[in-house]
Design a protein that fits this description.
single chain; 245 residues; alpha+beta; 5-stranded mixed beta sheet; 5 helices; 24% helix; globular
């Protein structure tokens, strides 16, 4: 039937690998994204024993005179953007195994991203109150875990309930110890820990469900004892923090 044929996604081809064209699309546009620099103030309780959810620290913008200083996304993530541009333009002749693995993960994810998006929407757009644990598992199974450099990640075991993914796939992530910090200063449990390509923890992420903003944000190191709920649809924001490992 006319018009019934499925459109194929364009592919970037070179001697090293074939990859989904969407990985390399609009790379130059990232130079328009900027991060404002912040400086920590003196009103900070980091030297006292506090959970991350109790952390307090005032901040201010770093300025040049009266002008706030900002840094381009493309400068901070220059190695990754340069890699993608070189592959797109055929300038890369060889790739280390971990870089090949990263491109393959992006390629594999994009091929089934539509299904993962549907799964996330099933969970995040439900009308009943949305639990923190439900959001964490869903985002792990259908986004962050699929892109983890080391191929695996763990979820904080100190939760009030061990849950399966609620989208219908019934995937159960790996729960384990995710404590960071020191009990004499800031400390607590991050919700998700990712492995690097070297097999050591590299990034952390946490989820926060806010009843005030009706949003879900992977940002705050909140205490397992404090589990706010939200009503209605949820908007998801993701922030990753590289560790010093």
């Amino acid at each position: 039937m006319p018009g019934s044929e499925k459109k194929e996604t364009p592919v970037i081809r070179n001697k090293m690998m074939d990859a989904d064209e969407r990985i390399f699309r609009n790379l130059e546009s990232f130079s328009k994204v900027q991060f404002v620099l912040l400086k920590l103030g003196t009103l900070c309780n980091a030297t006292k024993s506090h959970l991350f959810s109790e952390a307090e620290c005032d901040t201010g913008r770093v300025k040049d005179g009266e002008t706030p200083i900002a840094v381009n996304f493309s400068l901070i993530f220059q190695p990754g953007l340069s890699l993608l541009k070189d592959i797109r333009d055929g300038k890369k002749k060889t790739l280390p195994n971990h870089e090949k693995s990263a491109i393959r993960k992006l390629d594999e994810y994009l091929k089934v991203s539509g299904q993962h998006e549907k799964c996330l929407k099933k969970v995040l757009r439900r009308q009943q109150p949305l639990e923190k644990e439900t959001v964490t598992v869903s985002v792990t199974e259908h986004l962050l875990g699929k892109l983890a450099a080391g191929g695996s990640c763990i979820i904080n075991e100190n939760v009030k309930e061990i849950v399966f993914c609620q989208c219908g796939c019934n995937e159960r992530p790996v729960y384990s110890y995710t404590g960071i910090g020191h009990q004499d200063v800031w400390h607590g449990y991050t919700d998700i820990v990712f492995e690097s390509h070297d097999g050591i923890p590299e990034c952390i992420a946490t989820t926060q469900v806010s009843s005030l903003s009706s949003s879900c944000a992977i940002l705050d190191q909140s205490s397992p004892a404090k589990r706010p709920r939200i009503e209605g649809k949820a908007e998801l924001q993701i922030y990753l923090f590289p560790s010093d490992s």
